[in-house]
Amino acid sequence: MGDEAIVYGINPVLELLRAGRRKVRRLFILSGSKNPAIKRIQNIAKENNIEVKFSDRGFLGNISKNSEHQGAVALCEPIEYFSFRDFLENQRDFPKLLIINNVQDPHNLGAVIRSAYLFSFNGIILTRKNTVSVTPSVVKASAGAIEYVNIALEDNLPQIVIELKRALYKIISLDIRGEERVKDLKVNPPLAVIVGGEDAGVGEKLLSLSDHIVKIPVSDESFSLNLSVSAAIIMHELSAK
């Protein structure tokens, strides 16, 4: 399965089939399942001439390497990565970008990608260093939203931010040390939001390149918001701009 990706879970498999961006090579579903969503998966697969193999729960767990498969597992083409320059060259299609820095938890990354899709941040830039790769767990946590966004995997985020600024993107970093509040932010596209992991946060070099460093006020600063919640809040605030 060297050149195959694993997608497991009802919603991820359903959206994989609906999006049609990745060729599904094999599809396995739980024998005897009465779940209506599983039936929808079968119907879409049939419409697209994808063979379905009925399997027991143990087999599905083995092939997905996870017990949270919900009775549906697909083997498909890997995610196709973009270059951030694709976003620059098609700026009209990518007025709002999300840059993810220092995020190690796959569930957090998947949840952030899900919010990015829902708030029309359909261009996402990940770094190869200090950020988890797009694993089956990330795809599952995104609930299938990853099939509708475009992800660039890059090495040098500071240089990318410099090039985005040259292309007139406003750079907004979300950080607890920010002096601006999210709700007071008045920025129009094109823009790029940088979010960081709960422990490491956004790197100092990226903060120094930012046009705005913003925070989300909370009632008790001894606690912090989960990354995916924070990212969703700032993307929501900027979604109407």
Describe, in short, the structure shown.
The chain has 241 residues and is of the alpha/beta class. Helix content is 35%, strand content 22%.
CATH class category label of the largest domain: Alpha Beta
**What's the helical proportion of residues?**
25-40%
* Count of the domains: 2
> What is the distance, rounded to the nearest whole angstrom, between the alpha carbons of the first and last residues?
43 Å
- Provide the succession of SSEs: EHEHEHEHEHEHEHEEEHEH
The total count of strands amounts to: 11
Determine the CATH topology of the largest domain: Alpha/beta knot
* Number of contiguous helices: 9
What is the H level of CATH, i.e. the homologous superfamily of the largest domain? SPOUT methyltransferase, trefoil knot domain
Biggest sheet descriptor = 7 strands, parallel
Could you give the topology of this structure?
Elements: E1 5-8, H1 10-19, E2 24-30, H2 36-47, E3 52-55, H3 57-64, E4 72-76, H4 84-89, E5 96-101, H5 106-118, E6 123-127, H6 136-141, E7 150-154, H7 157-166, E8 170-174, E9 180-181, E10 191-196, H8 204-209, E11 212-215, H9 227-239
Parallel strand pairs: 2-3, 5-6, 5-10, 6-7, 8-10, 8-11, 9-11
Antiparallel strand pairs: 1-4, 2-4
Helix pairs in contact: 1-2, 5-9
